Amino acid sequence: MQNVKLIKPLVVGTYAFLLSPQEKKKYGNMTHKWTCLVRCPESTDISLIVSKVVFELDPSFMYPKRGDTQPLYELNTDSDPNNIPPCVVNETYEEIIFKNPTVHFYNKFLQCNNTKIAPHKFQEHFIKYDFKEDSYTKKYLQFQSEVQQEICDLMSEATLLSKDINDVQQKYFTMKSEMGVSSDEN
């Protein structure tokens, strides 16, 4: 789809919890258990448009490059969900821009925006991104989506018309040639 731009907000975050004294003994000199994850701030299902996330950790880790192909895209150490101490949160808001997507991807993108996911176990620690005039933004995005679809339809129609014009011109020149009329004469 030419001249179409889709924008998907994502959050890359780390959530660290202090180890209990028993865990410190178990894990040696480690001080925290942590999770790194990629999520949509609107709690929509990004698995429809993201197939894999690769986490690049500090080179001191045994396996510094790790991939995850399963939603929720996260990397973590074990933690006791019944005893979650205060959390240290570090999040980065990003926007990924998809230019000139295929119609198939465009439809998946729209489906992604309309598919909510269940709350994450760390949901209470997530930073709330306040999108002012959220309903206006949603209406604008819906309108933009409809306009982009109309543009796509019109571009397809224009392509067909252009092909028809070329066919008619070709027939015209063929007929002129068959009649022995030179291109200088009209």
TrEMBL record:
Membrane-spanning parts: none
InterPro entries associated with the record: YEAST_sf (IPR038704), YEATS (IPR005033), YEATS_dom (IPR055129)
YEATS domain: residues covered: 1-186
Top-rank lineage group of the source organism: Eukaryota
Gene Ontology CC annotations of this record: nucleus
Major location (coarse): nucleus
Name recorded for this polypeptide: YEATS domain-containing protein
